[in-house]
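User: Hey, my collaborator sent me this sequence without any context and asked if I could get a structure. I don't really work with proteins. Can you help?
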Amino acid sequence: MFSSHYTNRLFGRTRGRSKKKINLKNYYETVDKYKFQNFDEKSEYILDVGTGYGETSIFLAKQFPYRVVVSCEKYIDGNIILLKNIENNKIKNIRLYNGNVYDVLEGISRECINLVWIFFPDPWPKNRHAKRRLITSDFLIKLHKNLKENSEIHIATDSFIYVRFILNSIYKCKDYFNWVNQSEINLSIKDYFDIETKYYKKAINSQRKPSLFILRKL
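Assistant: No problem. I've predicted the 3D structure and written it out in structure-token form, which is a compact way to encode the shape of the chain:
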């Protein structure tokens, strides 16, 4: 169902810096067991974008056992950890897409997503790399088309540069979304969700306070 030719190129590493070898054949065989195929009319969906080591997908799957969590991540090392946690926790409602979120969105022809999480996307802090950032007004509007009524997008980042970029994107989409927590932007993620991902801990240890944006479809 997904096209391999897309205008929105996916940047970043697929492997970590560790030299640890993995059996890619076994990896892809395991991924296939949980591979996301398509959106069916009988299910409710949560789209978890850039899941890193999979903590958010596990959290969402447990919080919403009646919904299908589509974990969209190309980072192989993180997916390996996620797959182990899926099997160790006997989780049945996660489907993994090992690739570009734009491919997933291209496969949707209706409003079928109940919630989107995008926690700690790569901020690409250098100006020359700004075009690589995921959170743009165009991307948010693309999501809007596939969100169900009153569905939400939750975005978290610890990058001050990305915060300003996201604010600009939200302003351009003010006719599409209500910024639910605009007056509470300084609250911690922990004030909303009992979850600490690797990147959340890294931010706290570096004395950076992550910002959380909650956008609700108008």
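In plain terms: The chain has a mean pLDDT of 89. You can pass these tokens on to your collaborator as they are.
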